[in-house]
Write a structure and sequence with these properties.
The protein is α+β, with helices and mostly antiparallel strands. It contains 12 helices and 14 strands.
Length: 442
Amino acid sequence: MGDVLKVALANLVLKLPSLTVGILGQDTSKPQFVQVSSIQLEHHLLCIEDGSCDPNAWDTRLLGMLQDQHDQLWPSIESRPPWRVIVIKWTPSGVDSHLVLDVVFAVHHSLADGRSTGVFHSMLLEELNSSRGPPAQLVGNTLMITGTCKLPHPQEKVIRFTISWAFFLKTLWHELTPTWLHPQSLERPWTGSVITCEPCHTRLRLVTVSATLVPQLLATCRQYQTTLTPLLHILVLVSLARRLAPHEAQAFRSSTPIDLRPFASDTFQDSNQKIPFGVYVTAQSHFFDASVLASLRTLGEEAIKNGTVWKMAAKLRSQMKQRLDSLPKDDITSLLGWVSDWKGFWLSKVGQSRNDTWEVSNIGLIPTTNITDSDGWKIQRCIMSQGASVAGAAVNISVAGVPRGDICIALGWQDGIVGTGIIDGLAHDLRGWLNRLSQKMA
């Protein structure tokens, strides 16, 4: 198994130049990618034999492994590209003894965004199902990187951003002026504890929508003119409104990452990949004021039963569409170049409140056409998780799936920022409500 995976991974790395660079000066104000001359695959590929296990117990063990991966620093980042693949071999107990592998792809966020992690798994599947042998550049465990690899263009080079003066001046005022000059809203969103660097430990919970229920859930979303992402926002809103008292939480703010690839210039499409590998993302914020929270607290579970969540999800979907229609005009990522010292920028936020209560990041289905009923390698499910977002949203909600498979929703947070009981309650609510909304049309 190890040799097969090594060959597939070597062929894949040669197709993805982003995986052949280290990061020089990451703690300075001017970090840069540096091309490595070779990659020692034993530093990037780890195979673990874990025997048999009950599938339900395995998920708990898998989440523990993911938490450990998120909490590790990248060693020798200047000379060793910051990514790794951990392959865990196990056999589910109580079923036919077929081989099951969990393939964990951990990667530095400067190399890949959420959609790119899906691209990686899709391309790895293609390599495993191909008949290609080892590349000439692979000698033992050493993959030689010959020549200069052409890295993907940064998003500011391929997205035709436009900026109005009003947006430009408003952003500079908000970011550069002292906080005491800003008007203070009485409805400050609840965002967990203030930003702190320690302990930087990731905690994870998993919510799964069974493959048998997914078609009905998505069909109901279409019936109510919404999609899964805004529905999840509203379900999280209802849950947290019920679980946090009015004196604790007067308002919430959430965010949605937005894939910028559809707004790229034609030169962006010079890659052989249908979905280019890299970081091409921005975000949209959503504010829920005290009146919304008060209404949901009054309704309680009735908000799920009487269709309130569907109406709110449809409204949020409409707002998200308006934002999409306006891009790439007046987007905050177009001004990233104005920050001259990113380390100082983030350290200045320590002790301050976060901007967002939660984030819903949905990468959709893994882009692959190789999931069939025939023999060969298959992807049965996909889980995306994020490490502790020290200065980001208090809770990260990461969504992924595969065709005809489960939808997996990972809830992640920094240890100590949000109470474990709140997250466990949120996971319980999402499991029950998604199951209920998936079983029948209203």
